[in-house]
Design goal:
Helices cover about 40% and strands about 15% of the residues. The chain is an alpha/beta fold.
Length: about 300
């Protein structure tokens, strides 16, 4: 059977890495916009967007800042914009979800369960003159739970479906697949199911091919082989090995500076576009065709860029 075209997502800035770790991590709106457009030109069908305070680099839930970013990306590119609802684990549920009814994107992330999401291990990478907020922000995750309760998940799913926004379920562990299956069985989740398996986060499943296969097989058993689309993201040095495995298995991939600051060992990537180009080469070697944005819209069942609220 011919494999479906692979969707490349570029996660542009995220809320994990901080600016002092790489001069290439985009912080200002113009930088996020430029890197998004560049990633699309290099072959990304989707860009995954977080906003940051342009003065400090801190993750931001400012709606007007997000509106500016996604509006200008839309003006300059046909790429699908996936807006985060996990902007920072330190934000409230209402802060994180506010982008959906306000902007009505085609696609938005939806974290599929609660977890320990520990970033404290990154503190050792900070230079001595790092901005004052970075160290406590990263260290604070040691005593915090990234909360996504069943009540929260139901609110996320119902809000997204009301806005015709497809959830991109972020799955960090097998129990989160059970959560998705529950909402499907209850008739609460009726939209097409799209899963992003995220491996290698401290507090989630380790990044290994065995664990990827386990998650994929579990999703097939719980949801049905033909009832979901899937992609893989992996943290740090695991990014390219795990995305290559996904391509070989028939899945899609997420790369970008949110997940990994490097293009090869000890060499910083200068943009997410550089990583997109590398993963395209991997895909070509493996005989996988890359989906355009419009092909990805069809695969994922998206409503189209004309129907967004920005």
């Amino acid at each position: 059977m011919k494999k479906q075209k692979a969707i490349i997502t570029a996660a542009i800035t995220g809320a994990v890495h901080v600016a002092s770790m790489s001069p290439y991590l985009p912080i200002k709106p113009e930088e996020i916009i430029d890197q998004s457009v560049g990633a699309a030109r290099s072959g990304a069908a989707v860009v995954h967007i977080h906003a940051r305070d342009p003065k400090t680099g801190e993750p931001s839930s400012d709606l007007e800042l997000m509106r500016k970013i996604v509006s200008e990306i839309k003006e300059k590119s046909n790429v699908i914009v996936c807006i985060t609802t996990g902007a920072s684990q330190m934000m409230t549920v209402d802060e994180r979800l506010s982008v959906v009814p306000s902007l009505k994107p085609e696609l938005a992330s939806c974290n599929a369960g609660s977890m320990n999401f520990v970033l404290a291990g990154l503190v050792s990478q900070l230079p001595a003159d790092a901005p004052a907020w970075e160290r406590p922000y990263l260290e604070g995750t040691r005593d915090n739970v990234f909360s996504n309760t069943y009540l929260d998940l139901e609110k996320y799913i119902r809000t997204m479906q009301k806005c015709e926004t497809i959830p991109e379920f972020e799955v960090y562990d097998a129990g989160m697949i059970n959560n998705i299956a529950y909402f499907k069985k209850q008739g609460i989740l009726t939209a097409p199911i799209y899963i992003q398996f995220v491996l290698g986060i401290q507090g989630g499943l380790p990044a290994s091919v065995d664990n990827l296969v386990f998650l994929h097989n579990t999703a097939e058993r719980q949801l049905g082989e033909d009832h979901f689309n899937w992609s893989v993201a992996a943290a740090g040095r695991h990014q390219f090995p795990l995305t290559a495995a996904s391509l070989a298995m028939g899945g899609s991939v997420r790369i970008g500076l949110e997940d990994n600051l490097y293009i090869r060992p000890h060499i910083l990537a200068k943009s997410s576009a550089e990583q997109v180009e590398a993963i395209r080469t991997e895909a070509e070697i493996l005989g996988r065709e890359i989906a355009t944005p419009d092909e990805a819209r069809q695969i994922l069942g998206l409503k189209g860029r004309e129907q967004v609220g920005y």
